[in-house]
Amino acid sequence: MSGPPLSQDQIESHNAARLDAVQDEYDGLGRALDRRGIDIARIKAQVAAFSVALPSWGSGRGGTRFAKFPIAGEPTDIHEKLEDCAVVQQLSRVTPRVSPHFPWDKVDDYAGLRQEAAALGLGFDAVNSNTFQDQPGQAHSYRSGSLTATDPAVRAQAVAHNIECIEIGAQLGSSALTVWVGDGTNFPGQQDLGASLDRYLDSAAQIYAALPDGWRMLLEHKMYEPAFYSTVISDWGSSILAAQQLGDKAQCLVDLGHHAPNVNIEQIVARLHRFGKLGGFHFNDSKYGDDDLDSGSINPHQLFLVFNELLEAEANPRGGFNPAYMIDQSHNVTDPIESMLSSAEAIVGAYAKALIVDRAALHAAQAENDVMMGFQALRRGYRTDVTPLLAMARLEAGGAVDAIDLYRASGWRDRKAQERRPVGLGAGIV
Ligand SMILES: [Mn+2]
Questions:
Q1: What local confidence, expressed as pLDDT, does residue 427 receive?
Q2: Which of 25, 152, 243, 296 is most exposed, with minimal Cβ within 10 Å?
């Protein structure tokens, strides 16, 4: 296949039927913002320039450790995953890149894969390594850890895999490696907590040494799961200490679900940026832990507050501001394309609301210790309904006014159910 997967004519007729309503609502919002001294066209231009990467693994139905319930027409390999991600990009116009995961997305010809993605209107974002599960034919098991394993042969295998991911990423046009390891313990006494971190740092330094110029290594921390007593990079403190020891190319990646309950994640964003270590962000939502629910579905206010800190960071870049934004979700009970469309809109919507915040008023209130007016400055941004602005930006970029509605009308999944082989049962997010 070449070109976008859905009929552009169908999108245009969908939009034409909705144009008058969108224009009317957009004009109304424009007048409301104008009265607050905000130029809607400027906000729309910033929204049009925003993007977030899709996870290749997010295009399939996820699962829990209990079960996975596949749907007909799910993608079964990276080629089909790219097709589905291209549908999301074609309709949303904010997801032009895919973050691949290896070895799940392995192919023989990466130059060909890059061309295939480009023909679909996609590029590649950060590459993700996987040493949290064993693969068929693998020489050494990761059952007792990977980058922290006590057996040097296991550590060498895990390091070599990460370096292979960098080499693949270079062929795909990527410039970042995201490293999350499941290494940790389930029992007190299982490991020497200091020595396992030493082994991690030694392994990570070997990977770091293989980074090409212009590349970054993003360290993703996670408090628990699959290890339930300790994990080696458990929190942002461990992450920034490791990144600082590794060097300038190492930065921290914040996943919204990878914290203790009730942790102030927006403050972590501000902290990491303060020390030049905010490298990336994994968007999802959660109620209890690493639930990997759809972005903005549980706590949209938190998503807004995260973007508020990201905009503060961008306005005060210190040593630089270039976080890699990615969705990282597990779509267990929905059509993954619909979840990614809904999530992409929630993310860009939170960004738009943060853009609408009157920063001069916010900063003035902060300087004067005017608590209520500082809060109200944020509140006015948050309560603004940016739906017409997002719809107009999508429409102007060739996307769909109502992306999920058009996706359903396109019959994409039913068509793929005829073409694609069924995926297997079983647990896990693959
Ligand atoms: Mn993540």
A1: 58
A2: 152
